[in-house]
Amino acid sequence: MTNKELIAELSEQLEWTQVKVSEVLADTVDIISSRLADNATITIPNFGVFETRKRSERISVNPQTKQRFLVPPKICVNFRAASNLKEKYK
To answer: What is the reported pTM?
Structure first.
């Protein structure tokens, strides 16, 4: 599903204009992104949990040159689906 399809379907269900739905969806994504940037956990009932995790640094090897290099630590976003969502799509 593309962003346009999502906006069209939401505007149909909510009986709002597509412009208003687009603004609300953009604001929602901005709020979620800013909270994740602050390392907050976001729980959406019956959908799942968004959280950040820190990946530790590691040593990687280039397979062609066999040169080793250090990959720095980084923070990545993780999503855990809610149990009822998992069961629905088993």
So the answer is: 0.74
